[in-house]
Amino acid sequence: MELLRTRAALPDVRWAETSPSTNAELRALVVTETGRDAAGIPHGTLVATSDQTAGRGRLDRGWVTPPNTSIAASLLVRGFGASGLGVSWLPLLAGSAIVTALQPCFTAAAEAAGGEAKRVGVKWPNDVHVRDEEDAIAGRPGKKLCGILCELLPGDTTGGHTVIVGTGINLLIPEWELPTDRATSLLAAGADTGGAESLADAAGRDLADRVLSEYAKELLRLVRLAADDPGAARARIARHSLTIGTEVRVHLPGDRIVDGRARALAADGSLVVDLPTGGELTVSAGDVEHLR
Known about the structure:
The chain is an alpha+beta fold. Helices cover 28% and strands 28% of the residues. Pfam families: BPL_C, BPL_LplA_LipB.
């Protein structure tokens, strides 16, 4: 795939017609056989495919979609956390960047139909969803468009962390091929896809290029903002959150379940949940379910 916009925005873009895992491919480029960082691979390097055959998500869950319907992309971020926000904020920054890339597709569809646009937002800690007005009233996050998985690599010489930011973005999966009833795609959710039916056709390639370039540019911009003005980066994340302000059920390690109201993000990006009996719970690891 040519990806002219994306190649113009990034120092190195590598497209694979098929890949077991773009995270694994990028990791193999960066980490040498001795376990050291191959420092010549630049910040902003991207590996992407429309046919990932053995992708993994958070908690080692599988992520496989029909070929030419979704994009798996892995972006290399160097030196993160040397100043400003810590590395635990990176999945949320990536989610915000995905929102920036995908929201225009729903805005364009709504303008053409003369209605209200569905809202794309981030469900804590690492999923991007789209929801309609009915979802918003009920406090539901809507359906999942994208998952994010960040992997720490050996430290680089600039300080901070070297991180692979992996994303799986559902673009053209037909409704009948969606993996679960909690998932969706741009196509299935009624977004403007420019007439694309497959990422193998011209319109599909253009859609993939637009989404990838906007996402990558925005994430690299937010990475700089997180170092230079962490307060502004945190405000951006909060603005895109679908979880803050909603009733949630937190599934904690050890099969413990806690209900409460998500109130804010802590200094390290953890979720602060107000408990109905008083007090609060700070959640740094665990699944969060939005209660209806």
